[in-house]
Every structure is written in structure tokens, then in C-alpha cells.
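User: Hey, my collaborator sent me this sequence without any context and asked if I could get a structure. I don't really work with proteins. Can you help?
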Amino acid sequence: MLRVECIPVGRLLSNSYLLCDAGSGEGIIIDAGDDAERIIRIVEMNDVEVKGIYLTHGHFDHVLAVRELRERLGCGFYIHEKDAMILSRVPLDAKYFLDLDVDPPPEPDGWVFDGQIIRVGSHKVRVIHTPGHTSGSVCYLAGEAIFTGDTLFAGSIGRTDLPGGSLQDLLNSISTKILSLPDHYAVYPGHGPSSTIGAERRLNPFLRWIGDWR
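Assistant: No problem. I've predicted the 3D structure and written it out in C-alpha cell form, which is a compact way to encode the shape of the chain:
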């Protein structure tokens, strides 16, 4: 069984996720937006051995806890190479949007890529490259759940007006790589509540743009 803990963190309430294989105790963290101490407490409460921190994209509100978690948990962190430039802007963007003075994140320990399989105990997590919110945005497919970062939300979609954003790419990613999944699959976004593929297909007003775009 793959357990999922959702941990809203930071002033923008970004969702960090702890995925854990109940059998082996191995796990990964998807996004690490802030509040490293809170994330570590939940890791310790669940007795998880964290094997890596995997980012959906490089925006500051998803990465501010990476340095501390990497040091204290003794694991690497990973992101798509196309978001390297955005990752380098973290101090500038944190200052601009929230007037926060932060250190730059550490250099990634490696790059994720489309189709990559990440092992979490006996489970497989597949990387899906979904450009649009940023050029290096990815989703993580784990069993019957997809972690969508800021690509798809419950009732909304990611913004595309920041560097690396593209509405055309975003809608293409959603239509071809996310909505191709079965309706009962869970959607765990980078902000806000969880949903399902079917609910978003039926109710998300922004997905009407897909038909217009096509």
C-alpha cells in the first residue's frame, strides 16, 4: 500500500506530499514549499526513510524547504532540467512576490525526465513531463493517483503568464497526458483540495478551452 500525506505549507499554502510504501517504510517527498520542521515531524511520525525530494517545478513556493530537508534527511532532490533557470530565480521571485529574503536552493542532485520510473519500496512512480505552467513542469503518476503540481487544480488550471509559461502547452499537456487517465484516478494538485480526473473532466470550467484551442 502506498500512503499519501498532504502537507500544506508556507504563506501560499503549497501542498507538499509524503508518499510512503507501508511495507518497506521507504518514501519520497513531492514538492517542499516551506515549513521544513513541519514536514520533518510528519516524516518522523510515519517512520519514513525518505529516498528523495522530487519537484513538480521550480517556483519558489514549491522549493523553499529543499535545502534544509536535503541536509537533515540526507537525501537528494530532483527537478526537470528545463526548470533550472526558474530554480536559479528563487531568491528574486520570493522577494518580488512575498518580500522574503531567502537563500538560493542547492544544486539539484539529478534531473527527472519524461517516462522515468522512481521506485518507492515496491511501488513505481512515473514522471510525466507536462510543460505549460513552466517549461519543465512534471506530474508524478503513482498507482491510481497523479500529483499535478501547478498544472491542474480542482476547478482550475495553472497560470501561464510567468517566464516559461505557455497556455497552448498547458492545455496540450492536460488534454493528452492527464485527461487520458481513467475518471476514478485521484488528482493531487500543488495547491488546494484533491479531486479526480472525472470530476475535472466534467466540472472544471477552464478545460472547456481545450475544445476551443483544438
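In plain terms: The chain is about 25% helix and 30% strand. You can pass these C-alpha cells on to your collaborator as they are.
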